[in-house]
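Thread: sanity check for a docking pose with NAP

Original post by kr_44:
Hi all, I'm comparing my docking run against an independent structure prediction. Below are the sequence and the ligand SMILES. Could someone generate the full complex and paste the structure tokens? I mainly care about where the ligand ends up relative to the chain.
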Amino acid sequence: MHARLAKARFLAVFFPLVLLAAAAPAQHEVTGELAQPVGALTVTPVVVVAGATGRTGRLVLEQLAKDKRYKVKALARDPAKARRELGAGYEWVAADVTKPESLVAPLRGATYVVCAIDATERSGPNGPEFVDYGGVVNLADAARAGGVRQVALISSIGVGGEGGFTRWILNTIGGDVLKWKAKGEDYLRASGVPYSIIRPGGLSDDPGGATGLRLVQDVDAFGNITRADTATVAIATLGNPAAVGKTFEVVADDQARPGAWRSAFAALKTDR
Ligand SMILES: NC(=O)c1ccc[n+]([C@@H]2O[C@H](COP(=O)([O-])OP(=O)(O)OC[C@H]3O[C@@H](n4cnc5c(N)ncnc54)[C@H](OP(=O)(O)O)[C@@H]3O)[C@@H](O)[C@H]2O)c1
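Reply from moderator J.T.:
Ran it for you. Here is the predicted complex with NAP included:
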């Protein structure tokens, strides 16, 4: 618990700061098949939220619950605790992304998955290797087996490039978290499951919708964004053909009009 708190405090303070440091230029590295287009739906889409108890995941959950277009299923390692802390109004389902067998039933027949998971320790069985990488592998496999139409993965700014102080410090402190996230992204892109990969800047708990947002495809982008806006962007990719098969960074932009980002997906390049 202390290790988790220390990690959370560190990231909250240093993530936005280190993003200001320069990083070596690099391009997106993308492998795998092209995502299939998202077809028309005849039933109410079921969205499974992985990491639903987290600070971003719970906002995804709240926003989806207000949106009558979706049915929502919230994954938690400890559903009883989740119910106590976040309310019984959601359908809580037990699942641990490090345990592939726990994902099969919850994802079977689901329409979309939003993934907001994050390792709870620097190393060990719930560290980045097994959560940010292994967990995404397991989710992608279960999504493919379950016929899921799209996975929206909340990853991180800084993933996908190499070198630079920013990456060095985040990887050093975070147990190679950016490297493991990059491997998770690669697996999802190659999985054949339609996807969108959202790489938010340094996260804050400020209210969403206060500023415009900038969607870019630049592994050396830097900036911050609220968790609420990150949740909104992830949801906006669901069933959105302009967002499928794309990996992009997203940060707040004081100069941009709030909401204008919604039409920015089409200009992003499809991963190849
Ligand atoms: N901190 C930043 O500034 C920053 C910047 C850019 C991107 N990001 C990324 O944004 C995403 C969301 O971040 P956040 O701060 O909102 O995360 P968070 O509050 O730390 O929440 C993490 C979530 O992952 C879940 N989780 C951990 N291990 C799991 C497992 N084995 N099986 C299932 N669920 C598991 C946790 O559930 P439990 O309740 O069971 O522990 C929790 O719901 C993360 O991928 C993070 O790396 C963060």
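Residues 11, 15, 51, 53-57, 76-77, 96-98, 116-118, 120, 126, 131, 135, 154, 156-157, 200, 202-203, 227 surround NAP (CB under 6 Å). Hope that helps with the comparison, let us know if your pose agrees.
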